[in-house]
Amino acid sequence: MKLTAKIVAFFMLGIILLTAVHGYLSVQRQNQRLQQGIDANAESVARTMEQNLVVVWRERGHDGVIQLMRGANERLQQKMTIRWVALDVDQHTAAVAMPVERLRIADRGKIVATTLRDPMGHVSRLMYYPVDVEDQRTGCLEFSTPMESVDHYTRGTVYQTVAFAAAVLICGLMVTLFGVRTVGRPLQQLIAQTEKIGKGDFSGRLALHTHDELSQLAVALNHMSAQLEEQQAEIGAESTARIAAVEQLRHADRLQTVGRLASGVAHELGTPLNVVSGHAELIGSGRLEEPQCRESAEAIKSEADRMAATIRQLLDFARRRSPHRAAIDLHKVAAQAVELLQPMARKRKVDLQLEDATISPVTHVDAVQIQQVLTNLIVNAIQAIPDGGMVRISVSPTEKTAPENMETGFTSYYAISVEDNGLGIKEEEMAHLFEPFYTTKQTGEGTGLGLSVSYGIVQDHGGWIDAKSQPSKGSCFTVYLPRCVEDSP
After folding, report:
1. What share of the chain is helix, strand, coil (3-state, %, to 5)?
2. Does residue 428 lie within any of the structural domains?
3. 3-class DSSP state for residue 351?
4. How many helices (H) and strands (E) does the chain have?
5. CA 19 from chain center: how many Å?
6. In the prediction, which pLDDT does 333 show?
7. Alpha helix (H) ranges present in 209-289?
C-alpha cells in the first residue's frame, strides 16, 4: 500500500505542477496579447490625432489641446482615457508614471508604455506618444486603459487551476482506494507469503483473484513453494540417511577395532583364567585347609573382577549410542584408550606412554566418539611398529589457526598427539590418508575407514586432524579440538 500511495502521490503532484505552470503561462500570454492590442490601438489613435493636435497647439496653445482631449474622451466612451502631458511648460506639466527625461528622448511616432497598479489594486496600462511641434518636443499624449479583463482572466485561470487540482485530488483519492484494493492488498499478501518462504515455511498456498500480473506472480510463488517443499523433504530424507550411514560407519569402525582387540583381550584374560582354574582345582581337591581355601576364593574373586572390568570396558567401547556432548577431561579419555589398548600393545611389544597434562584439559565433547578417534590413532600407531617400539600420547593447550578450508571461528584448541617411531608413511600416500577405504596396511588388518571416520568425528566437533610422517622414522597424528565449546542439544 505504501508503494501505491507513493505512485499516486507522485502522479497527482506532477499533474498539479503541470496545471499550475500551464495556468501561469496562459495568464502571461493573455496579458502580453492584451497589452500588445492596447498599445497598437493607442498608437493608431495617436497617429490619427497627431495632425489635429499640432494645428490646435499652434493656433490655441495648451488650452486648445486640453479642449481637444475632452472631445476625444467623450467619443471613446471611457474605453480609453486620453490626456495631454506638456513637457516644456512647468506649470502645465502633469504627473506621469514615467520619467520626463525618458519621454523627451523617446523616438517620435512610437509608443512608450508601462503598467501601473494603484493602491486599490487596479491595474492600468499607460502609454505615451511623443508629439513634436516645429521640431520641438512639446508634450506627449497619455493613453490610460484599465486592465480589468486581464484581472478577470487571471482570476478565472486561478479558479480553474484550483478546481482542477481539487478534481485531481479527488481522483487521486479514488485511485488510491482502488490501488489499495487491487494492488496494495495483493502485494501485502505476496510479501507475507514471501516472508513465510524465507523462514522455511513452505506450507499454504496464496490465492489471488486479480486476473493480472500479480495473480501470475502468486501462481509462480505457489509453484516455487511446492518445489521447495518437495526439495526440503528430499534433503531431509537424504540428510537422515546420510547421518544414519555415517553413524553405521562409525559403529562398524568400532566393531572392527573391537575385533583387533579380541586377540589382545583373549591373551589378557588367559592369565586370570589360569589362576581361577588353578585355585578352583585346589579347592575342589579337598586338600586345602580352611584358611587356604579362603585365600584361594579371594584370589578367584579378584581375578574374576579383573576379567569383568576388562570385558565391561570392551563392551562399553563397542556399544552404539547417540552423540552426547558434556564437559570431559581429555586426558582421562586418553588414559582410558591407553588402558584399553595395553593388552594389544604388550602382545606386539609396544610401549604406550601417556604424558602427564600440565593443566586439566576440559572441554565439551562426546567422550565415546573422541575415545574412538584416539583408539583408531593408537591402533594405527601400534600396527605401524613391526618389531617393538614406543607410542607417545600427549594432551596440551595450544593456539592454532584452522586450515583454509575450515571456518571454525576458534583460535584456542587442545592438541592430542599420538606419535610413534614406526615405519612412517610415504609422501605420495599422505594426501589420501583420510579418504574412505584407503589403507596402507596389509590385507586383513584394516578396511581404510578408521581415519576417515575419525576425521569426520573431529570435524563434527569443530576441529581437524593434522598428520606428519617421515619414512622409517615414524608418524605423528594430532587432533585439534576447540576449547570451551557449549553443550550441543
Report:
1. 60, 15, 25
2. yes
3. strand
4. 10, 11
5. 43
6. 92
7. 213-285
Looking at the predicted structure, is the pLDDT value of residue 189 above 60? Answer: yes
**How does the average pLDDT of the chain come out, rounded?**
77
What angle separates helix 213-285 from helix 330-347, to the nearest 10 degrees? Answer: 50
Same domain, 334 and 361: yes
264 and 116 together in one domain: no
* Strand, helix or coil for residue 215: helix
* 12 in Cβ contact with 169 (< 8 Å): yes
For residue 351, what is its C-alpha cell?
A: 610401549
| Domain interval for residue 309 | 204-320
Give the tens place of pLDDT for each residue, 468-485: 998 888 999 999 999 875
* Owner of C-alpha cell 482502488: 178
Answer positive or negative: Cα dihedral of 455, 458, 462, 467.
negative
State the alpha helices, DSSP H only, in 180-212: 185-198
The total of other beta-carbon atoms located within 10 Å of residue 100's CB is 11
Q: Which of 401, 424, 422 is nearest to 413 (CA)?
A: 401
Specify the residue for cell string 501561469: 24
Could you tell me if 99 and 154 lie in one domain?
yes
- E strands, 92-226, in order: 112-117, 123-133, 136-146
User: What are the cell numbers at 152?
Assistant: 478577470
- Rounded distance, CA 318 to CA 371, Å? 11
- Do residues 19 and 148 share a domain? yes
Under DSSP, the state recorded for 355 is: P
Q: Model pTM greater than 0.90?
A: no
CATH number of the domain at 296, please.
Answer: 1.10.287.130
Can you tell me whether residue 125 is helix, strand or coil? strand
Tell how strand 362-365 and strand 326-329 pair up.
antiparallel
Place of cell 496562459: 26
Instruction: Verify that 308 and 334 share a domain, yes or no.
Output: no
Place of cell 496545471: 19
pLDDT of residue 1: 53
Q: For residue 129, give the 3-state DSSP assignment.
A: strand
Give yes or no: residues 136 and 24 share one domain: yes
Residues 6+ apart with CB under 8 A from 195: none
Cβ atoms 321, 368 nearer than 8 A: yes
pLDDT tens by residue, 13-64: 887 788 778 778 877 787 788 778 888 888 888 888 888 888 888 888 777 8
Look at residues 90, 93, 77 and name the one whose alpha carbon lies nearest to residue 142. 93
Question: Does residue 155 share a domain with residue 52?
Answer: yes
Residue whose C-alpha is closest to residue 376's, from 485, 467, 473: 467
What's the domain count of the chain? 3
**Dihedral angle over CA of 37, 42, 47, 49, nearest 10:** 150
Task: Tell me, yes or no, whether 329 and 427 share the same domain.
Answer: yes
More confident residue, 397 or 179: 397
Identity at 54, one-letter amino acid code: V
Bigger pLDDT: 341 vs 266: 341
Residue of 104 and 320 predicted with greater confidence: 104
